[in-house]
Amino acid sequence: MTRSSTALSLTLLALTALAALASLGFGTVSLAPDRVIAALFGRGDMIARTIVLDLRMPRMLLGLLVGGMLGLAGAALQGFLRNPLAEPSVLGASNAAALGAVIALYFGLAELHPALLPLLAIATGLVALAALFGLSGESESALTLILAGIAIATLAGAGISLALNLSPNPFAAMEIMNWLLGSLENRSSQHVWIALPCILAGGALLLWDGRALDALTLGEDGARALGVNLNAVRWRLLIGVAIGVGGAVAVSGSIGFVGLIVPHLVRPFTDRSPSALLLPSAIGGALLLTLSDLGVRLIPATNELKLGVVTAFLGIPVFLVHLMRERRLW
């Protein structure tokens, strides 16, 4: 890791710690920092401990984990595909995991056991990975992977639309819609323990190939000349995205654009090499999602805004700016 990337990571870590503390202190009931810190150490009044440890702590931890995973996945995919608009949904992993969650909700499996919903989301993410390899075949082309990912994402979207169309009553349709909009509301420590191993495993796989991503900036032929096994890199990257993003979507619903926004925000502060972007993007994603979740709690509204809606409003301008640059309109 370069000196600039290390300094950026430390700065982002400090900001993320402050954001996490603010996430524990602010909400429907605001708590002073001394009450939050006392509750974290098991002291203070019972009301503060209940709010901080039972209600806000799981939500804050999930914001860090999910945001970190989405930011890291976006940076890794942009480096591997050499496409600044790439993010986890490009390979269909996010949509496939969302379809698994919708199936669990539609057939009432989520009511049988809380773990069935995330397990089905992860399983459909892995099935999407297998379909991706089946469609792309032996090709190592990034364009082939993107086209196969679009096909899988479209198929998953059609399945979700079918579930909404066949919903037995408006309440079932509303439950599915709420899940698709993405949220960290009413999450417990059980959700943290479900997502944690998936995100750690997926993140480790994505961090594995930093040097290979640097070599890919020379092109596929150049990377092969440097001894990079592109097929092995692709396997590790796709499995990492499927497991990590599948686990994240399973507990948070569909939250898009984090993987698109964060790498573009942190890239100017690095030497722009893909390996230098991975860790800062993971920390930046955790910071962005924690602040966004804090924002949905503080914005005055009749109903709490959904997290996926907020990240979409943040991501669309970034997407359009880069799209117009690609078209050389300025």
Brief overview, please?
This protein has 330 residues and is mainly alpha-helical. It has 15 helices and no strands.
Distance between the termini: 34 Å
Strand content: under 5%
Structural class, from secondary structure content? mainly alpha
Computed CA radius of gyration, to the nearest angstrom: 20 Å
Low-confidence stretches: none
How many individual β-strands? 0
Largest sheet: none
What is the string of SSEs from the N terminus onward? HHHHHHHHHHHHHHH
**Inertia-based shape:** globular
Q: Please, could you describe this protein's structure?
A:
- With 330 residues, the protein is mainly alpha-helical.
- The protein is built from 15 helices and no strands.
- It has helices at 3-25, 33-40, 46-81, 93-106, 109-112, 116-136, 142-165, 170-181, 189-208, 210-216, 220-225, 230-252, 258-266, 274-298, 307-326.
- Helix 3 runs parallel beside helix 9 (189-208), helix 3 runs antiparallel to helix 12 (230-252) and helix 4 runs parallel beside helix 7.
- The longest helix is centred in the first third of the chain and has 36 residues, at 46-81.
- It is globular, with a radius of gyration of 20 Å.
- The model has no long low-confidence stretch (mean pLDDT 83).
